[in-house]
Write a structure and sequence with these properties.
The chain is α/β, with parallel strands linked by helices and 279 residues long. Helices cover 47% and strands 20% of the residues. A hairpin with a 3-residue loop joins strand 2 and strand 3. It binds ligand C2E and calcium ion (3 copies).
């Protein structure tokens, strides 16, 4: 649009310009972050609720910037949507996940899965399949121990394309979960088409389930429906004993949240594990 304001500064364009430069700057910084080893994973344990047994970890991206310190993923990931940097971080993350699996196995933790968050752009990137194939060739047959977390945003972007990729990656042995279930825009109809093993109930519903009748109903009916479709449920954001007990009564299989464990920095996790092994 043309500047109609005479010599009045055009705020709209200025804001757009600032947003764009901020975005470019951030991309630049993230690119450097990758070079300077500022990225790592924190690993949050997932337990089988009935037995308390550790069944896996979700890998959560951590960026420690030399000046800014810890930058939460919610602050920089949305800014990187549709950028090459997001893809590079994604591939870095998948490789990292395989490295972690290898170390866990070397320490004798055989039955633990690792869940990795996959961005929409990565899911739809043509290099994903070949890259995963390379990782399998390099690290060994870990596919069944890697769970790929997709959000409803990704699924609605291009459902047929997504389905094709999901079938292809499942052939290779990988499994899928749907993250933040219940918060997206999609209808339930796609659920029956999706080759998905696990549904992760969003933590907002878990947070409210003991005080709020609607949240409780959403949690309990989601669990029942997911079971009827032959899938398993992970409850996110379990913050206290009462929520855990209630989820157990509702037959929810897996729990994740601060009450069970905070995310643990990769380096800390390995020192905890190696001291346990020595004991
Ligand atoms: P998410 O995938 O839903 O991850 C769960 C978030 O909930 C994590 O936040 C985790 O630290 C937090 N959380 C876990 N338990 C509790 C709890 O009991 N209470 C509360 N209040 N929060 C809990 P985090 O690590 O800040 O990550 C935020 C989001 O950033 C993630 O949400 C995910 O969407 C995105 N993200 C993180 N790592 C990656 C990654 O490697 N790739 C991509 N594409 N996205 C990522
Ligand atoms: Ca997730
Ligand atoms: Ca989630
Ligand atoms: Ca979330």
């Amino acid at each position: 649009a043309k500047d109609q304001g005479g010599n009045r500064p055009c705020l709209y364009n200025e804001q757009m310009y600032r947003a764009l430069t901020r975005r470019t700057q951030l991309e630049e910084e993230v690119r450097e972050a990758l070079n300077y080893d500022e990225l790592s994973f924190a690993l949050q344990p997932q337990i089988e609720i009935l037995t308390g047994r550790l069944v896996g970890f979700e890998a959560l991206l951590r960026w420690i910037h030399p000046q800014k310190g810890f930058v939460p993923p919610d602050e920089f990931i949305p800014l990187l949507e549709n950028t090459e940097s997001m893809l590079r971080i994604g591939y870095w993350g998948l490789r990292k996940a395989f490295e972690i699996l290898q170390r866990l196995r070397a320490m004798g933790l055989m039955g633990c899965k690792i869940a990795v968050n996959l961005s929409a752009e990565q899911m739809l990137d043509s290099r994903l399949g070949p890259y995963l194939q390379e990782l399998l060739a390099e690290f060994g047959p870990y596919a069944q121990w890697v769970e790929l977390e997709l959000t409803e945003r990704t699924l609605v972007m291009d459902i047929d394309h997504c389905l094709g990729i999901m079938h292809q990656l499942r052939e290779m042995g990988f499994s899928f979960s749907i993250d933040d279930f219940g918060t997206g825009y999609s209808s339930l109809s796609y659920l029956k088409k999706m080759p998905v093993e696990v549904i992760k109930i969003d933590r907002s519903f878990v947070a409210g389930m003991l005080e709020n009748h609607a949240d409780y109903q959403i949690v309990s009916s989601t669990i029942a429906m997911v079971h009827n479709l032959g899938m398993r449920v992970v409850a996110e954001g379990v913050e206290n004993k009462d929520q855990l007990r209630c989820l157990n009564e509702l037959d929810c299989e897996i729990g994740q949240g601060y009450y069970i464990s905070r995310p643990i920095m990769e380096s800390d996790l390995f020192s905890i594990l190696s001291s346990k092994v020595k004991d």
